[in-house]
TrEMBL record:
<dbReference type="InterPro" id="IPR036390">
    <property type="entry name" value="WH_DNA-bd_sf"/>
</dbReference>
<dbReference type="GO" id="GO:0003700">
    <property type="term" value="F:DNA-binding transcription factor activity"/>
</dbReference>
<feature type="domain" description="HTH gntR-type">
    <location>
        <begin position="18"/>
        <end position="85"/>
    </location>
</feature>
<protein>
    <submittedName>
        <fullName>GntR family transcriptional regulator</fullName>
    </submittedName>
</protein>
<dbReference type="InterPro" id="IPR008920">
    <property type="entry name" value="TF_FadR/GntR_C"/>
</dbReference>
<keyword id="KW-0238">DNA-binding</keyword>
<keyword id="KW-0804">Transcription</keyword>
<dbReference type="GO" id="GO:0003677">
    <property type="term" value="F:DNA binding"/>
</dbReference>
<dbReference type="InterPro" id="IPR036388">
    <property type="entry name" value="WH-like_DNA-bd_sf"/>
</dbReference>
<keyword id="KW-0805">Transcription regulation</keyword>
<dbReference type="Pfam" id="PF07729">
    <property type="entry name" value="FCD"/>
</dbReference>
<dbReference type="InterPro" id="IPR011711">
    <property type="entry name" value="GntR_C"/>
</dbReference>
<dbReference type="InterPro" id="IPR000524">
    <property type="entry name" value="Tscrpt_reg_HTH_GntR"/>
</dbReference>
<dbReference type="Pfam" id="PF00392">
    <property type="entry name" value="GntR"/>
</dbReference>
């Protein structure tokens, strides 16, 4: 078994209650983002199917999704080739995210009603409860809901569209970081600090906490990527 197929197999989690095509897709995505399948590597659909004893249909679905997310590309007369992501890419993505999240949070803070702040607080309290119960997948969803809430309340539709274009990377970066218990607790604390800054309409604190929050996440991701010798 070659290293590329071995990496995907190692990241293939069949314990989740989800369709096989989704599990295959997630295994490919994790392997690519962490650099376990290097940029320029060709993915042979037939070879994967035969080696893993899996129908080509879910593999074809996974590769189609990855093409849509621009993690792989179809090269004429060659096939599917990995584009991948580098440490430099990670820095660039987080720099963009810091600017966009700061803008969205400040705008949301200025437009939110008292009821909106109550709803945001309830969302944070739910996140704490889910974390105490060690319901990691639900905590991940709670983090997504938190971010979506702020972008929704910012009323900046174009900004939300730009962030959506980065989801292929951001969602998995978040998943990797938040599945770490230490990072998860710290991120929840940072969300509370951000909430308090919003309540007091403190633009300086909101900017500072947003940047610190994303810097901490980036450092965690870089450690993961560097452990896999990604440059």
């Amino acid at each position: 078994m070659n290293e590329t197929i071995a990496a995907v197999k190692n990241n293939l989690d069949l314990s989740q209650n989800q369709p096989l095509k989704i599990s295959i897709y997630e295994a490919f995505r994790k392997s690519i983002i962490l650099g376990q399948i290097p940029a320029g590597e060709r993915i042979n659909e037939k070879e994967f199917s035969e080696t893993l004893n899996i129908s080509r249909t879910p593999i074809r679905y996974a590769l189609h999704q990855l093409v849509e997310e621009q993690l792989v590309e179809h090269v004429p007369r060659v096939g599917i080739v990995v584009k991948g992501i580098s440490i430099k890419d990670a820095h660039e993505i987080y720099d963009i995210r810091k600017s966009l999240d700061t803008l969205a949070t400040i705008k949301a803070m200025q437009l939110m009603t008292p009821n909106d702040f109550d709803d945001l607080r309830a969302l944070l309290e739910e996140g704490d409860r889910l974390n105490q119960e060690d319901r990691v997948d639900d905590v991940l969803q709670n983090f997504s809901d938190f971010n979506s809430f702020i972008y929704e309340k910012s009323q900046m539709k174009r900004l939300k569209t730009i962030v959506t274009d980065l989801q292929a990377y951001l969602v998995y970066f978040r998943d990797i970081a938040i599945r770490s218990s230490e990072r998860r607790y710290r991120a929840l604390e940072e969300h509370w600090l951000l909430y308090r800054g919003m309540v007091t309409n403190d633009i300086t604190q909101v900017t500072l906490i947003t940047h610190e929050h994303l810097n901490h996440s980036l450092q965690f991701i870089l450690q993961e990527m560097e452990s896999h010798q990604i440059e």
